[in-house]
Amino acid sequence: MHDDQLWIFGYGSLMWDPGFACAERAVATLHGYRRGFLMRSVHHRGTPEHPGLVLALDAARGAACTGLALRVTPGTQAQALSDLRARELVSYAYRETRLPVHLVDGRVIEAVTYVIDRAHPQYTGPLPLPEQARIIATARGRRGDNSEYLFNTHAHLQKLGIEDTEIARLARQVRALQAGRSGPS
Q: How many domains is the chain built from?
């Protein structure tokens, strides 16, 4: 890695709302990890009284997660990392890790990646899809509706040509739950 290059691996909201200036974006794959709604959100997409669910990377043998590698604009790396840490490490449920990421053009780069800490109380482990949908359909936090987070992530994965059948199924279930609601929630 060149001293002027800082890459961030986005697999959820960082793909569509990185919060920093990007000099380059590339579809990328991280091997040995899977993306899933594995973390209770008590700050951004939920509250302590009504937690939401957000995506997290979890180590899994044979797994791979395709997302977006984002190269931070040179000269802004320190501020970008500071802002990311304030956002992603708000409760320290993620561990900031530098991992090798394979870009679609064949390059392998080292990227700052936020991986779930399985020992943290916000880690849920795999939840049944109906339970995930129920939580996401109704939770709301400082950054907005939990369902908006899911729908934006799903839309951006589709736009990038990344197939994630679990997220697609979850988005369908959440939409169905929300459509069946009667009256304000």
A: 1
Question: Would 184 be classed as within a structural domain?
Answer: no
Residues assigned a catalytic role: 88
pTM for the predicted model, two decimal places: 0.90
User: What range does the domain containing 29 cover?
Assistant: 7-179
> Residue written as tokens 């939840």?
127
CA dihedral defined by 24, 34, 42, 131, rounded to 10 degrees?
130
Over range 65-93, report the average pLDDT.
Answer: 94
DSSP 121-163: TTB-----HHHHHHHHHH-EETTEEHHHHHHHHHHHHHHTT--
How high is the pLDDT of residue 90? 83
Question: 39 forms bridges with which residues in the sheet?
Answer: 54, 123
Residue 181 has pLDDT above 70, yes or no: no
133 assigned to some structural domain: yes
DSSP-based three-state secondary structure for 106: coil
Q: Is residue 184 scored above 50 in pLDDT? A: no
Residue 185 domain flag: no
Cα separation, 153 vs 181, whole angstroms: 23
pLDDT beyond 70 at 3? no
